[in-house]
Amino acid sequence: MKVEAIQVLFSKFKEDRLFHRYITNNHIEPLLKNLGDSVAIKIIGTSVLKQPIYSVTIGSGKKKILMWSQMHGNESTTTKAIFDLLNTFISAETSIKHILEACTICCIPILNPDGAEAYTRVNANDVDLNRDAQLRSQPESKVLRTVYEDFNPDFCYNLHGQRTIFSAGKTNKPATVSFLAPAQDEACTITPNRMIAMEIISNMNDMLQQVIPNQVGVYDDAFNLNCVGDTFQSENKPTILFEAGHYFNDYEREQTRKYIYMSLLTSLDYISTVNVDGSFHKPYFDIPENDKCFLDIIIRNAKIDSNSDVTDIGIQFQERLVDGKVFFIPKIEKIENLDLYYGHREIDAKGHLVLDDNYLPVKINYENDFVILNNKKTPILSK
Known about the structure:
Layout: H1 3-13, H2 25-33, E1 40-46, E2 52-59, E3 63-68, H3 77-89, H4 97-102, E4 103-108, H5 113-118, H6 139-151, E5 155-161, E6 167-168, E7 177-180, H7 192-208, E8 216-218, H8 228-234, E9 239-244, H9 254-273, E10 290-291, E11 294-302, E12 311-322, E13 325-336, E14 342-348, E15 354-355, E16 370-373, E17 376-379
Parallel strand pairs: 3-4, 3-5, 5-9, 7-8, 11-14
Antiparallel strand pairs: 1-2, 2-4, 6-10, 7-9, 11-12, 12-13, 15-16, 16-17
Helix pairs in contact: 1-3, 1-9, 3-9, 7-9
């Protein structure tokens, strides 16, 4: 499919009732009821706190794709993209009909509904579900495993979100979308199974380079069998990790959801029309590995007190859930030379004093929406 056509579909079928970062069962349940008879919706289990975990299955083809989102409850961008995709699939669009004829797609929109409600990475037992693939100590882990075994997918999509710190290589380009074909053994062998995942990633990267050039990365493939992707890959199921990252001034991740949607649709189109056997996996190795080169804000050339040399101040946003909305709280993480870092926003202090709200020297862990710069109140969150 052409990039322009996919962008038109996104604009047409974007689910406007899902927005910003806080997405829970309360948000998706009304949408599930409106999807219609072309999808099969099931409650496949319950969470620690007995919230339902849903699956949505659509399509009639032989190629089976299993995708799950919000395994980490505070990573909701891919959930929004799933509903954008579902809206597309239940439409009468002829341009995507071939996907549903070739594929059967099973989606778990929110695997960790307790974590989603609390806006935490972990579940209600304080367990990271993506480190529970072997023990399967948690009900959510058991639900995913049961669906995996019953559905018996040909491809697995492990959908996540990543922090704003990540860059595409050691560059000033954010890793807006990242991928990984997880390892399936300690040696990180490039197996036929991984080649299939790499080929699909390469195809998505080709598309993304047309819209976000140099803003795609891949993760280090260090093997950890406790991770779900590594486990499924080790069981010879081609598995792809998707990571929704940062786009300029897009802390709500509304622009990134578009690129995730485009990636999902591109990959499904590719799977539905091609016999993916890994033959075209090599471009995967041209995608730069993620690095950690970004801070949310850098105040450069600042003086901390009248006797100090100029230095830099690095600020990272802390995500806080307050009354059902996520707020971004600036917190000073570094006071040092930050020449090796980039800021998503940068402020030049021009050698002036930067003080806290009490006109005292700023310190690590200082949290506030502003600083005193050159004796003037300077908002940090302003664009």
